[in-house]
């Protein structure tokens, strides 16, 4: 599917300003959308919105379907009269340019429970009908997720394969007992999802009504400790006790002598294919409802994936195994129609992967920070772009452009200056200009680069834990962005909103 020539910003909702320790789906999201509208941007790209586990990574979620309930705005709950203003104030934290998840979570959780109780105590007929409709339209995953989170709490958030085996293996008697004894917690988990999706769809509509498309992100693999693997073990490489047998990763390369061992359980593609890829169809169906387009992470894995035994300590001893990506996407297209998908095709790509991408007309990704490490044939240099692609200065896994430039080898700095005909003093704007004027259908830039921020504002450093996914901006930082400069480049590059798109 081809996308219109356009421009946008990459920003995760946790990075919004907020009085409550982390960004949420409240009013600051609308202020950001107004910023996009003022600068004639028509794309907002986010990271996965699922409930996060250890490390708060959006790519390590308890569910491929559920939403991160900590993004629920307390201010919106006050507007709905499910919380009082003085109650919400109890969760306020000092506004900082980093998220304080560990402080925010317990404060928010306490208030969510109050709001949930009030909802059920005084639920109107309309809200009751909407809740039942929500349950029905999400029955494929909702009940299993709520049960999983209930069990997880009961077991101190230990991985599900370490629970009592009757629950781990979902024995009928144990599951019935779980429902009977924990009905209030299950109701609470249901309300959290109901409220999250209500708030998300309201924010998405606010963007769409202003001519802004929202691009989501779908990780190819799911976390082992997730409702997906627990409720569908036949689709994943786990044994009868739920222990991983085969896991995902990538082989050794220039960047790592031992490769990367991600640890996600691999799919049992034969079982998925036998069920006509129903789990994947449902997953993409929901993604196309949540977003206007989606970026598919690690696209290569749909053609072939690196298979490693779960007993291995590194990814060295693995092998490439073919995946039925062509059959999968044909099935999804048959069931759902057009596929507004962006393929994350970074790293070493084979001709077969490129053919899979191109046969379905999925645009690939071009990262400008990767453009200056070789010679003029480098595929990330704009003069080598195909039109059907998306250009970025960097992604959530890259340093900010200023940070990248400061740490880049001298020969890369030299080539970047030569290519942009600049002295490098505003390298972030030099690369933004390159992307804006390139032939790429879409140009998307991290908000940090529009703000001219340094390394300390980086979102994620792959292969590390502890300091990732924390970045936030303040309201004044957004106010100080040079909007006229952005708008001027968008107009110069013919990326402004067309009358038919508004």
Mean pLDDT: 96
Number of strand segments: 12
Largest sheet, if any?
Answer: 8 strands, parallel
SS summary, helix count: 20
* Inertia-based shape: globular
SS-based class:
alpha/beta
Distance between the termini: 20 Å
Gyration radius (Cα, Å) is 23 Å
* Fraction of residues in β-strands: 5-15%
Strand arrangement in the largest pleated sheet: 9-6-3-2-1-12-11-10
Please estimate the helix content: 40-55%
| Poorly predicted residue ranges | none
Task: Describe the structure in your own words.
This protein is an alpha/beta fold. It has a domain at 25-37 and 48-213. It contains 20 helices and 12 strands. The strands form 2 sheets. An 8-stranded parallel beta sheet has the order 9-6-3-2-1-12-11-10. The protein has a 4-stranded antiparallel beta sheet with strand order 5-4-7-8, with no helix packed on it. Strand 1, helix 1 and strand 2 (43-45) form a beta-alpha-beta unit. The chain is globular. The two termini are 20 Å apart. The model has no long low-confidence stretch (mean pLDDT 96).
């Amino acid at each position: 599917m081809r996308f219109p020539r356009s421009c946008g910003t990459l920003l995760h909702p946790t990075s919004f300003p907020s009085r409550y320790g982390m960004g949420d789906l409240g009013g600051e999201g609308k202020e950001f959308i107004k910023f996009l509208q003022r600068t004639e941007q028509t794309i907002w790209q986010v990271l996965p919105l699922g409930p996060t586990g250890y490390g708060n990574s959006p790519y390590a979620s308890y569910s491929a379907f559920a939403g991160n309930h900590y993004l629920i705005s307390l201010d919106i709950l006050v507007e709905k009269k499910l919380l009082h203003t003085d109650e919400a104030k109890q969760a306020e934290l000092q506004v900082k340019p980093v998220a304080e998840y560990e402080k925010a979570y317990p404060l928010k959780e306490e208030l969510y429970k109050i709001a949930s109780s009030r909802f059920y105590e005084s639920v109107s007929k309309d809200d009751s009908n909407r809740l039942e409709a929500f349950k029905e339209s999400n029955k494929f995953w909702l009940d299993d997720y709520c049960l999983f989170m209930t069990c997880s709490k009961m077991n101190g958030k230990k991985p599900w394969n370490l629970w009592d085996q009757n629950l781990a293996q979902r024995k009928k008697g144990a599951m019935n007992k779980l429902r009977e004894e924990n009905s209030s917690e299950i109701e609470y988990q249901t309300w959290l999802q109901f409220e999250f999706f209500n708030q998300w769809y309201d924010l998405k509509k606010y963007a769409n009504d202003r001519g802004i498309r929202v691009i989501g992100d779908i990780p190819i693999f799911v976390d082992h400790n997730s409702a997906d693997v627990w409720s569908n073990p036949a689709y994943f490489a786990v044994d009868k006790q739920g222990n991983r047998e085969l896991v995902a990763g990538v082989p050794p390369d220039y960047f790592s002598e031992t490769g990367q061992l991600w640890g996600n359980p691999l799919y049992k593609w034969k079982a998925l294919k036998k069920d006509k890829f129903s789990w994947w169809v449902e997953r993409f169906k929901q993604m196309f409802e949540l977003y206007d387009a989606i970026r598919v992470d690690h696209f290569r894995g749909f053609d072939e994936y690196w298979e490693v035994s779960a007993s291995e300590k590194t990814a060295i001893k693995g092998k490439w195994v073919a995946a039925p990506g062509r059959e999968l996407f044909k099935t999804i297209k048959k069931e759902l129609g057009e596929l507004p998908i962006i393929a994350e095709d970074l790293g070493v790509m084979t001709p077969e992967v490129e053919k899979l991408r191109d046969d379905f007309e999925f645009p690939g990704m071009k990262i400008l920070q990767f453009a200056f490490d070789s010679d003029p044939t480098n595929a990330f240099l704009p003069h080598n772009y195909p039109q059907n692609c998306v250009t970025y200065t960097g992604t959530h896994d890259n340093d900010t452009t200023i940070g990248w430039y400061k740490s880049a080898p001298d020969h890369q700095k030299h080539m970047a200056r030569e290519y942009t005909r600049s002295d490098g003093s505003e390298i972030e704007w030099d690369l933004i200009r390159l992307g804006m004027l390139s032939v790429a259908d879409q140009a998307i830039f991290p908000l940090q680069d529009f703000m001219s921020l340094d390394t300390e504002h980086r979102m994620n450093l792959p292969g590390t834990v502890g300091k990732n996914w924390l970045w936030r901006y303040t309201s004044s930082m957004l106010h100080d962005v040079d909007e006229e400069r952005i708008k001027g480049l968008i107009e110069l590059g013919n990326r402004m909103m067309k009358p038919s798109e508004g």
